[in-house]
Amino acid sequence: MIELVTGTFFAILVAGFLVGIVVGLTGMGGGALMTPALIFLGVGEAATVVTADLTAAAVYKTGGAVVHHREGTPNMQLAKWLIIGSVPTALLGPYLVNWFAGGDSEELDRVLKLCIGFALLFAALTYALRLWINLRRVRAGHHSTSDPRIRPIPTLLVGALGGLLVGITSVGSGSVIMISLLMLYPGLSAAKLVGTDLVQAVPLVLAAAISNIALHGLDWGVLIPLLIGSVPGTILGARLAPRVPQSLIRRGIVVVLTMSGVALLDKAGWAPLGAGEDETSPMAIVGVGLAMIVLVPLVWGIIRRTQGLPMFGSPTVAELEDPDYKPGIIGMKRGGS
Predict the structure, then answer these.
(1) N vs C: which end of the chain shows fewer Cβ within 10 Å?
(2) What is the pLDDT of residue 334?
(3) Is DNA-binding given among the entry's keywords (predicted)?
(4) What separation in angstroms does the CA of 16 have from each of 10, 22, 26, 35, 305?
(5) How much is the pLDDT for 2?
């Protein structure tokens, strides 16, 4: 266990605090940021990091879910089907990947880094999909609803996929499931979407944490500073959220997620990128980040053109992320001409 006076303890605490702020600011899943941060800090093997991150997430997600439940925002019928699908696969996921690695700790560490790397790239992609869905919603003039017609089987399958992903990597409860709900229920109001996602995430993350603890144990020296840092960070981020331009932060997160995903695949020795931890390619990773900064606005502009809009202008990314945004009649007519 890490002693309280070591630099590692404070490094984890600071990382937890900074990631907590970002989670509070944007609502994006903490696992997609915290897991790679802890791996790059070198606080333990990937399995140790995943277990600690899931356990910490079970604590702060429970608090958020209680608040949303008191305000009546979750759709409990929708959450029920997600939970039925996610909990069994969240319990099963860690055992599957451990079986795949043959019980060898080094191979398990490599496989987990591969899985987390791909999960991070998938999480970055879900943000782009979310913007595209919101753009189509605005163009189609969808009206928000709090009680859409529930589609049990597709919802259960979404839960099962999300549970498997979270159980293995700790990534996905706040990104993959969120985008899947947007695709299944495009008219679901923003408050209901966030509240439902938080409520279903609590048993999902708890199940994943329990399964990982049973397999790998729990390093309290990682968990304690993680909780000490992340809880106040999340509260501070939530208080700052109304004053901070979230769209800029979210786009920065997408770049960071992509770079982190590529870096982990490189460290794991994925053939197209690298040969393992001793031969990582920092310049290639930086190049990916710079390419993202240049290419993402251009690709987004092309997507806007396919929807009959100019490459740049209204609705902006910030407007698309605003649940209360409604385009003016004049703007809609111009966009459709």
Answers:
(1) C
(2) 43
(3) no
(4) 10, 10, 15, 10, 40
(5) 47
